[in-house]
TrEMBL record:
Keywords: Glycosidase, Hydrolase. Pathway: Glycan metabolism; L-arabinan degradation. Residues 11-21 have a biased composition (Basic and acidic residues). InterPro entries: GH43_arabinanases, Glyco_hydro_43, Glyco_hydro_beta-prop_sf. Residues 1-21 are annotated as: Disordered. Signal peptide: none annotated. Belongs to the glycosyl hydrolase 43 family. GO terms for biological process: carbohydrate metabolic process. One of its GO terms (molecular function) is hydrolase activity, hydrolyzing O-glycosyl compounds. It comes from the Bacteria. This is Family 43 glycosylhydrolase. Pfam families: Glyco_hydro_43.
Length: 336
């Protein structure tokens, strides 16, 4: 059996084991589902042939009861043959939500062989990229793809990092990022979903543009994946990643998202001034700098509010980091 080029015992899906620490586990775009019924934390990340010993891209999960020691990894989803996405082209930003008595996986898939119109931007071609949804009966899957022929958002829009948001009336939405490769100024948008979460049920709504953040620098250095520095004479690009929405204790609607500040990944936050999904959205000061981002919030079983994000950006060095958070009423802040 061949050993993956980026082999790490804590990431080998062929030989799951106990006793992992976050500092051991190569994870990117981490997402934690705290399942109170089982008393288990589920940490999801992408699975790749080079890192995890799988034969195709997909999603893995680690499990813990205390956030200190983790068991796994276990495969919960693999990109199947015969669908719109290519099994060898990646699975990004997986997250799992309980909805309507089932568990729904949101994951960004790709097909670099299905090109979109338009010239490449800074060497990156436009191709099918979008969030797909899959359903399972438990947090451990297996998850079955709901829409085999295309991503949730129409395939001509190059999108990523979709997340579930349920509005005040109980209607499901997907909030997602529209890729800077297609827009130059990356955006965060929202689209109403069908009740089974398989498809868009309306036209997308623009929520914010990356360039609206006053602290934001243009694209990072050329050796940073997915966002190269603009060569002389070309327009700068602005990145949107990792959108997540939450209500504070006084009902304020806030959004975590990530971008780059002078070439370094940043975990930041915005707030809807209307308290509604459509905004308008105001940009607040970043929460965590230092090449850190794509974070999400969850409530620990002891009541603490925690942020998990990854640092640094690149794999296989990327690791998950936990921060205790405070709900101030109108926003969230890192404790300490």
């Amino acid at each position: 059996m061949s050993v993956p080029s980026a082999y790490n015992e804590a990431s080998d899906i062929r030989h799951p084991r106990t006793g992992h620490r976050l500092s051991d586990m190569p994870v990117h775009d981490p997402f934690v589902l705290a399942d109170a019924r089982s008393g288990t934390y589920y940490l999801y990340s992408g699975a790749s042939p080079t890192l995890n010993g799988v034969d195709r891209h997909g999603v893995l999960v680690y499990k813990s009861t205390d956030l200190d020691e983790w068991e796994g990894p276990y495969a919960v989803f693999a990109v199947p043959d015969g669908v719109w996405a290519h099994p060898q082209h990646g699975a990004w930003a997986p997250e799992v939500h309980e909805y309507g008595g089932k568990y729904y996986l949101f994951v960004t898939l790709h097909n670099e062989e299905r090109l979109l119109e338009g010239e490449p931007v800074q060497g990156y071609a436009k191709h099918w990229r979008g969030t797909a949804t899959a359903v399972g009966d438990t947090p451990e899957g297996p998850f079955e793809l709901l829409k085999p022929d295309s991503p949730v958002v129409p395939a001509e829009r190059m999108t990523l990092d979709g997340t579930l948001y349920v509005d005040e009336a109980g209607a499901p939405w997907m909030v997602y990022c529209h890729e800077w490769i297609q827009t130059l100024d990356g955006t965060i948008e929202a689209v109403r979903l069908t009740e089974d979460l398989s498809s868009a049920a309306g036209e997308p709504t623009l929520l914010l543009r990356a360039s609206s953040a006053p602290w934001l620098g243009s694209a990072p250095a050329a050796d940073t994946p997915l966002a190269p520095e603009a060569p002389a004479g070309e327009a700068a690009v602005y990145v949107t990643d990792g959108c997540q929405l939450y209500r504070t204790s006084n009902g304020s609607l806030v959004m975590l998202w990530s971008s780059y500040e002078q070439g370094s990944y940043v975990q930041t936050i915005a707030r809807s001034t209307s308290g509604r999904l459509e905004g308008p959205w105001e940009q607040l000061d970043p929460l965590v700098r230092g090449d850190s981002g794509h974070g999400m919030l969850f409530r620990a079983f002891d009541g603490r509010l925690l942020l998990i994000l990854h640092r640094p950006f690149s794999m296989p060095e990327s690791r998950g980091y936990l921060y205790e958070m405070e709900d101030t009423g109108d926003t969230f802040r890192v404790v300490g």
